[in-house]
Amino acid sequence: MIDKGRLIKTFCELVRIPSVSPDDKEFIAYMEKLLKKEGAKSTTIDTFGNLIARFDAKNSSSKDAVLFSCHGDTVSPGIGIEPVVEEKVIRSKGDTILGGDDKGGIAEIVEMLRSAKKHPPLEIVITRCEEIVPAGAEMLDYSLLKSKMGYVIDMDAPSDVIIGGPTAFFVTVKFKGKPAHAGVYPEKGISAIQVLAEAISNLKLGRLDEGSTANVGVVKGGTASNVIPEDAELEVECRSLDDKKAREILKEMKTVFNNAAKKFGAGVEIKEETALVAYSIPKDSKVVQITINAMKKNGIKEDVKSMAGGTDATHINLQGKIPTVVLGIGGRMYHSTDEYIVIDEMVAVANVITTIVEDLA
To answer: Any catalytic annotation for residue 141?
Structure first.
């Protein structure tokens, strides 16, 4: 039986501990002590600093371990968080984030450990640096894990069941023009900013189809209004739930950049980074069906979908051994001082994951 008061108390204790990325080691150390207190058979800190805690089966003969994972770090401003418990929600005082992302998920997992009457072997992973790169889940030592399925608790509503994510490319483009005095010899110069503008005007941006987007996020260039700019730079991204489509969009973008440079006789340097690689878990897979059944038992209508953003589940699924879905935590307005978490939704999530482990037992 979920204890609402205990869940709220745990959550408030967790968010008061500062863990602004990448300074999250104090929180990881706290969680190691807490999980040992809750009965972890063993704990390991891998070489990146991620915490892995293992729990034996409880009132169960199952030998198939199940993974539950959350990240322990937060964004700024996250120092001196003071949670304010209202009738239906928990907020910060207003000058910091709340830290529900992702300590709401951690509190719910802890409550599940305390409440479940039975469960299979469990592996609880608290990752570092999810909010920055490299992320803890990217650097996690997967050789230490034995789980057959997994759950990342890091979305919004209790009904969320995320089964897919995108391939995403981050691209930096540098155009090299030719400087000249803008008033005296403009015809002798090549404006890198003009080349950049030409490129942007020919890019397909925004929502390209149901699962694909592209964006120009940063533009830099120029030194003074009377100088034909030699250098200009832009940072763009493209992503798609379809890996092949994402690569096609990237190829089209690179063609646009090269054509713009060629048109004006400028140089161009293109650097790309694969930030995410698409994954998809079949809706009829065991991890998804167990989740849907648990939600139905708790009166929740599931919302099974893919998302365009990345989570720790992206990196876990890419290993190919632990099919992992993402569930909600009951929070809203993440990464802002308006962040809050809905108390009844926290209870709902804790009930769902407790039902999951009891069913798997």
So the answer is: no
